[in-house]
From TrEMBL:
The gene is pilW. NCBIfam families: IV_pilin_GFxxxE. This is Type IV pilus assembly protein PilW. It comes from Paraglaciecola polaris LMG 21857. One of its GO terms (biological process) is type IV pilus assembly. Keywords: Membrane, Transmembrane, Transmembrane helix. InterPro entries: N_methyl_site, PilW. PROSITE patterns: PROKAR_NTER_METHYL. The chain crosses the membrane at residues 12-37.
C-alpha cells in the first residue's frame, strides 16, 4: 500500500467549478441569451415592418394604376367603333355619355340614388363614372356578346375598409332597353385595407377660361358639381386619394393624422403602417369634346 493509498483525503478529492465560477457562468449565459432573444425580436419586428412597407407600396401602385386606367375612359363614346352594339339610338346615347362622364344622383330615374357623392367630414367619397366599353369594372359583359361595346356604369365605394366596385348597363338604367334579371350587379372587392377614399373634380368652362383648351380652372367637391354642370361647366379631370394600411401585425403608433386632398386630417383606428396615395387623371375624351365646343 502506498502512502497515497493510506491517505483518506486522496480518496475523496476531485477537480470542479467553485460556486463563484458557476454564478459567473450563469450570469454570462443569461446575458448571452438575452442578447440572442433581443436580436430575434428585433429581426421579427424588422421583418414585419418590411412586409408592411412592401405590401402597402405594392397595393398603392396597383390601385393607382387600375383606377387611372379605368377613369381615363370616363366619357368615352366612339360612334365609329365597329363593336358598338347599336340596339339603341347611339347618336342620342353619345350625347348623354359625353355630357355625363361623372354620374350624379338623379341622372337615372330608375336608380336615382346612384351617383357620385361627397362624404361627410372624414367619411369616404363615392365615385360613379360612365363610358363606352366591353365590360364593367368587374370584367362582366352584362349580357352582351364577347367584344361588344355598350354604355357601362362603374360605381366605386368603400365598405368595411375595402374598396369595392359594381357595374351596370347604362342603357337599362336609362330605360332604353329591358332589364336582364340574370345580370349580377353585386359589388366585388378591388382592394383590402382601404381606410379612406377621397376625390375632387376638375371643371372647365370655355367662357370662363377664355379658351377652348379644356383645361381645368379649379377643383371642386362632388356636392358642388350639379350647380356647376347646370351652368355649362364640365368635368375634365379627377383627383383622387386613398389611405392604405400595410399587411402585418406590427404595432406602430397610429396617432398620426393624414390629410387627403381638401379633407380634414384623418386619424385611422387600429395599429399598423399607413400610407396615403394621390394622383390626378385627365378625362381626355371629355377634354377633347370641350375643345370642339364654341361656347
Amino acid at each position: 500500500m502506498t502512502k497515497n493509498d493510506r491517505n483518506p483525503k486522496h480518496l475523496y478529492s476531485a477537480s470542479g467549478f467553485s460556486l463563484i465560477e458557476l454564478m459567473i457562468a450563469l450570469a454570462l449565459g443569461l446575458v448571452i441569451s438575452g442578447a440572442i432573444i433581443q436580436v430575434m425580436v428585433s429581426s421579427r419586428v424588422t421583418q414585419g415592418v418590411n412586409q408592411a412597407v412592401t405590401s402597402v407600396q405594392e397595393n398603392g401602385r396597383f390601385i393607382i394604376s387600375r383606377l387611372r386606367q379605368e377613369m381615363l375612359m370616363a366619357g368615352r363614346y366612339d360612334l365609329l367603333e365597329p363593336s358598338l352594339n347599336k340596339v339603341v339610338d347611339v347618336i342620342e346615347e353619345a350625347s348623354f355619355v359625353l355630357n355625363h362622364p361623372i354620374i350624379l344622383p338623379g341622372d337615372f330615374a330608375s336608380m336615382p340614388q346612384l351617383g357620385t357623392i361627397q362624404g361627410a367630414t372624414g367619411a369616404n367619397d363615392v365615385l360613379v363614372i360612365g363610358l363606352q366599353g366591353s365590360t364593367d369594372c368587374r370584367g362582366n359583359r352584362l349580357g352582351y356578346d364577347q367584344g361588344e361595346e355598350f354604355y357601362v356604369i362603374n360605381h366605386y365605394f368603400v365598405q368595411s375598409n375595402t374598396l369595392r366596385c359594381r357595374g351596370f348597363d347604362g342603357r337599362v338604367l336609362r330605360g332604353k332597353i329591358a332589364s336582364n334579371n340574370s345580370v349580377d350587379n353585386s359589388a366585388e372587392i378591388i382592394l383590402d385595407d382601404v381606410y379612406s377614399f377621397q376625390a375632387l373634380y376638375g371643371i372647365t368652362h370655355n367662357t370662363l377660361s377664355g379658351d377652348n383648351s379644356g383645361r381645368p380652372i379649379r377643383y371642386v367637391r362632388a356636392d358642388e358639381l350639379a350647380a356647376l354642370l347646370a351652368n355649362g361647366s364640365q368635368v375634365v379631370a379627377i383627383k383622387f386619394s386613398l389611405l392604405l394600411r400595410g399587411d402585418g401585425e406590427i404595432k406602430l403608433n397610429t396617432s398620426k393624422a393624414y390629410k387627403l386632398l381638401n379633407e380634414t386630417p384623418i386619424t385611422p383606428n387600429g395599429t399598423g403602417l399607413f400610407k396615403p396615395f394621390e394622383t390626378m387623371v385627365t378625362l381626355r375624351n371629355v377634354k377633347n369634346t370641350m375643345r370642339n365646343r364654341k361656347l
